[in-house]
Design brief:
The protein is α+β, with helices and mostly antiparallel strands. It has one domain. It is built from two helices and six strands. It has a six-stranded antiparallel sheet with strand order 1-2-3-4-6-5. The chain is globular and about 30 Å long. It starts with 17 loop residues before the first strand and ends with a helix.
Length: about 110
């Protein structure tokens, strides 16, 4: 299959801590980068049955937080945090918001 066959619309992400965001890829992987109220930047990625959220002081740190250097579902590295969960192929805004909220909760309680 080509990447075009995986194209999805940029779903509307709604979370009270999201200040702003941009959907950077709607194919596989589905990626969103943005800013959080009072806690820096985030990077969300869904691919191969997993969704991952990284948070860091800058967008670059948020992306780095998602690199699987430690084989555990939740990790803390200074001000960079991430969480990863199994996830079906995201096909709606409702599904995106549910997955994003669950990841935010896991990161907050790590």
């Amino acid at each position: 299959m080509s990447a075009d066959e995986y194209e999805r619309p940029p779903y509307d992400l709604q979370h009270p801590r999201v200040l702003g965001y941009v959907t950077t890829c709607t194919a596989a992987p589905y990626q969103i980068e943005g800013l959080l109220v009072g806690s820096g930047a985030f990077y969300f990625r869904e691919r191969h049955g997993r969704a991952t959220l990284g948070i860091g002081p800058t967008p670059e740190h948020a992306v780095e937080a998602t690199i699987p250097t430690i084989p555990v579902p939740v990790k803390l590295t200074g001000s960079m945090r991430s969480a990863s969960i199994p996830c079906e192929f995201i096909e709606s805004a409702e599904q995106l918001n549910e997955v994003f909220s669950e990841l935010m909760e896991r990161v907050d309680h790590a």
